[in-house]
Amino acid sequence: DAAGAAAAGGRSGANGEDGGGGERGTVVLHAILEAGASAPGGGGDADPLRDGAVRGRVDFMGAEPVAFPQEDTGTVSSEDAESCRKMLESLAPALDFVCPDAHLFEALDREVWTAEGTRCASVRDGERGSVVYAGDGGGPPTALPVATLRTPDGRPTNPTGAGNAYSAAFAACLGAGVSATEAACVATAVGAVVCEHEHLPPWSWGVLERVRLGAEEVGLKVEALSRQAAVA
């Protein structure tokens, strides 16, 4: 969270070194933000991201805005969409990426999600995969299919938290300097691993290898889709 990122940055020296005199690592902030009009705390989730002290200690910052669709229509209300738009506009100068779900993404114009200064938007759509949009109006979107689940019936054991895990992995990979598409491949694999477990996965070397193989699978699928599109 923002406080944790600030604390991590605060332990680093002003010259980019840690307290022991060595170089500090990259500080990445992935913030899950309640973005609806009636969000608990009146939208205060985003306040730390506006804090200059926090922003000055974070190298790479992104947001996962959350506004739930209405049960009767399956769409995000206009009030919630407007609340999210205002939040994003207030944060846009500081955000490197945004990672909404498809319901919220579709409630606003693409330009809101890829405002000037925002590197990319990755849109999560559950079993349909995700789509990465380049920021600043650059390039066509890239669609990514899901990774194959290694469960007895090929269905999720428990999908709770898979979207959050996707966003966090996407943030970590972007912060490490990989491309948005590569980051989304890894994020897709991380989300799949979460779906394969009843509770949070044990992040053992075996599970990390599962993530690597899943990301490789998704990357090959993306390449195949790209070749098909070129032929068409």
From TrEMBL:
Domain of life: Eukaryota
Compositional bias (Gly residues): 10-24
Segments of this protein annotated with the region Disordered: 1-26
Protein name, UniProt field: Carbohydrate kinase PfkB domain-containing protein
Organism: Trieres chinensis (Marine centric diatom)
